[in-house]
Design goal:
alpha+beta, about 180 residues, 3 helices, 10-stranded antiparallel β-sheet
Length: about 180
Amino acid sequence: MIKPNNKNVLQEIYTTSKESFSVGYVICENETEILFKILDELGRECALYLIKKERITALAVNTDYLQKIEVYMDYWNKKHYSLMSNMKMPIINEKFILSQILEFVINNNSIVTIRSLDSDNIETGLISKLDNETVLLRCINIEDATIYNEVKILKDNIWLIEFNSIENDVLLYAYKNLRK
């Protein structure tokens, strides 16, 4: 099992491929999950990812790429620019990270992106129902912001959940405004 580095250390996070990774900081963790604040390729905070530790294949620190991202972050900080400054943040008890995030998302009517062990699909949508074992997700087509499907996902099979993301926030805006 991968051990995350210090919460204040920028990291490359590898899950499905050695060629692609996410960049972020650890916000909190428990025995099975890590909550990361994710940065985009320009060094801007852009999302929160909850990832099961068993799915993290590698973590890297102090790479040339991360050094460049840190310079980009400095650029944005000097401009007092933040994409996520107006987003609500959940208060997390580290014992129950996934449950609290799902409650936060449903209470705030936010769009999430979920990857699960029982599907190769990446599902994006609104949680319509939540119980102790499952999440019912109304899937939104990212091409035209319409509901196209509803899927039931076992909570135990969720290995990544993206929330409070700029992409999903803009998609939610499109979904709401195309229905007026």
